[in-house]
Amino acid sequence: MKQCLLRENGFTFIEMLLVLSIVMVMSTSIIFVSTSKFERMEEKRFFEQFHLDVQSLQSIALSERKYMSLVFFENGTKYKAKNANEIYFEYEMPKGIRLSQDSYLKEIVFHPNGTVKEFGTLLFETKNGFKNVYVYIGKGRLRYD
């Protein structure tokens, strides 16, 4: 009778440690996977927003008939849209994304008719490697790699 009562006390310390270690391994792997997924989503959101900012700058150049430029500064971690004497918007890039020092283009300039002054490649450094943004001659179309 005493043996039956002793067995009903609950889990042993070893059993609890085993279950706790399994739960910790599973939660750690979930956190790691969700963090990398979040970083990829943040990178995608940034490049979509950057594309919209370039299109917005081009439409301002067309509507106001002014030269407009998108300039990167502070070691490639910020960019601003401006004309000769007025800043239209200024944004900071997400942590882990910046314009590379090796980038061919350092700025995008639109003529008053909406065409780009200089075409080429913007090279961005991200946590997942390098990302190319191609600025095409003519109407300033962008493509991502």
TrEMBL record:
Record's subcellular location: Cell surface
Pfam families according to UniProt: N_methyl (PF07963)
Residue intervals passing through the bilayer: 12-35
This protein's UniProt keywords: Competence, Membrane, Transmembrane, Transmembrane helix
Chief location bin: other
Entries under NCBIfam families matching the protein: ComGD, IV_pilin_GFxxxE
Protein known as: Competence type IV pilus minor pilin ComGD
Organism of derivation: Psychrobacillus mangrovi
Name of the coding gene: comGD
